[in-house]
Specification:
The protein has 116 residues and is mainly alpha-helical. It has a domain of 66 residues: c-terminal domain of poly(a) binding protein, CATH 1.10.1900.20. 74% of the residues lie in helices and 0% in strands. The chain contains 5 helices and no strands. Helix 1 runs parallel beside helix 2 and helix 2 crosses helix 4. The longest helix has 41 residues. The protein is rod-shaped, with a radius of gyration of 26 Å. The N and C termini lie far apart (88 Å). InterPro entries: Ribosomal_bL20, Ribosomal_protein_bL20_C. This is Large ribosomal subunit protein bL20. It holds the Pfam family Ribosomal_L20.
Length: 116
């Protein structure tokens, strides 16, 4: 009986790992061991940064809303505006508010006038 060797499977595994690291620099794109390490680290960063992206967008929306408020009234700050929205029971999210402030300033101004 002949012994079985894993040459085909090893090559397939190596090829798949290196395919995942296409575009990486130095040994991480050519050496299996370094490529595996790079994939693990990339996965960790991808997981963490998917969560960070949500915070980044929220910060961006806040800045856009504040910029829209500055155009209308410099005394009316972001925090006062959000507080006024809650008191007036206007449930519109920050993403929509920032889009209005950027693309439709007259509609945004009407909302601001309603809560002032």
């Amino acid at each position: 009986m002949a012994r079985s060797k894993g040459g085909v499977n090893s090559l397939k595994r190596r090829k798949n790992i290196l395919a995942m690291t296409k575009g990486y620099r130095f040994g991480r794109s050519t050496k299996k061991k370094q490529a595996r390490e790079a994939i693990f680290h990339a996965g960790k960063y991808a997981f963490a940064h998917r969560r960070d992206k949500k915070n980044d967008y929220r910060k961006l929306w806040n800045v856009r809303i504040n910029a829209g408020l500055d155009m209308i009234d410099e005394k009316f700050s972001y925090s006062k505006f959000i507080g006024a929205l809650k008191k007036a029971n206007i449930e519109i999210n920050r993403k929509m508010l920032s889009a209005l402030a950027e693309q439709s300033p007259e509609t945004f101004a009407r909302i601001v006038a309603k809560v002032k």
